[in-house]
Design goal:
By secondary structure, the chain is α+β, with helices and mostly antiparallel strands. It has one domain (23-228). It has 6 helices and 6 strands, in the order H-H-H-H-H-H-E-E-E-E-E-E. 35% of the residues are buried.
C-alpha cells in the first residue's frame, strides 16, 4: 500500500482553482457538481534556504540550548531533504514554527510567536515522534486539526481529492480546498476551515463538512501534504 503524508497543515498554493464547498456537500445532500481539473506543475519547485543545525545533531544532544525556531528549522529542513518543498508551496508567508503548526506537528501549548523560547528534551522527542507519524499517515487518517483527506483514483490519469472535517453540531462549519499543486509525485493541498460566526444563524443539525476537487496529472501521486492556511 502506498504511503501518504498528511499534516497540517499547514495549516497558499500557487495554482488557484474555484472551490466546491456548498452547503449541500457539507451536509451530505444535493447534486454533485462537475469539478474543475488541476494542471500539474511542469517545473520542479526549488528548496528553501539550508539550515546549519540538523535534526540528528539536536536529537543526539550535540547541540545545546536549542530554541523553538532552531528546532522548527531543523524539522522543516528534514522534510525538505526528502523532497517536501513547504516554503515554496506556501510562498514563504509563514515562519518555520508556523509551518509546524499548519502541518499539525507543533505541540498545542506552543506559541508560534515565541521563536526564542528554549526547548525541553520532551518537546524535541514529541516533534521527532510527530515527524515519524506524519510520514506514516495514510488516506483517511485525521490530523490534529480533525481534518482527513481521501485520494480516489479515477479514469484517464486523474484523482478525486476529498477533504473532510469530521462531524459538527451545526451547519456553520465549513472546509474549503484553496489550492493544489502536483510536483514530482507529491500532491500539496492548502485548505481553510471556518467555524460559526457570532450573530449568524445556522441549522442545529449534525453535518459533515466536505470539499472535493478533481486532479488531472500524468504522474502517480505517491504522497499528500495538507497545509492549513488562513
Amino acid at each position: 500500500m502506498k504511503r501518504y503524508l498528511a499534516a497540517l497543515v499547514i495549516g497558499g498554493l500557487l495554482i488557484v482553482m474555484p472551490a466546491v464547498g456548498s452547503t449541500a456537500q457539507q451536509t451530505g445532500g444535493g447534486v454533485e457538481q462537475k469539478l474543475p481539473a488541476v494542471e500539474e506543475v511542469k517545473k520542479p519547485l526549488q528548496h528553501s534556504v539550508e539550515f546549519t543545525t540538523s535534526l540528528e545533531e539536536i536529537t543526539k544532544g550535540t547541540v545545546k540550548n536549542i530554541t523553538r525556531d532552531q528546532l522548527a528549522n531543523a524539522v522543516i529542513n528534514k522534510l525538505e531533504s526528502k523532497g517536501i518543498i513547504l516554503n515554496e508551496i506556501t510562498n514563504r508567508q509563514y515562519t518555520n514554527l508556523e509551518l509546524l503548526y499548519r502541518l499539525g506537528m507543533m505541540p498545542s501549548d506552543w506559541d508560534t510567536e515565541q521563536l526564542d523560547a528554549p526547548v525541553a528534551k520532551e518537546e524535541i522527542d514529541y516533534l521527532v515522534e510527530r515527524l515519524a507519524a506524519t510520514e506514516e499517515t495514510e488516506s483517511g487518517t485525521k490530523n490534529i486539526h480533525g481534518v482527513s483527506y481521501n485520494l480516489i483514483p479515477q479514469r484517464d490519469s486523474a484523482y478525486m481529492l476529498e477533504m473532510t472535517w469530521g462531524s459538527k453540531p451545526s451547519s456553520g462549519y465549513v472546509i474549503e480546498i484553496k489550492d493544489v499543486v502536483v510536483n514530482q509525485g507529491s500532491l500539496y493541498v492548502t485548505y481553510t476551515t471556518r467555524e460559526p460566526q457570532a450573530g449568524s444563524a445556522y441549522l442545529t443539525v449534525i453535518t459533515h463538512p466536505r470539499d472535493a476537487k478533481l486532479i488531472e496529472t500524468n504522474r502517480q501521486i505517491e504522497q499528500v501534504i495538507t497545509i492549513l492556511v488562513d
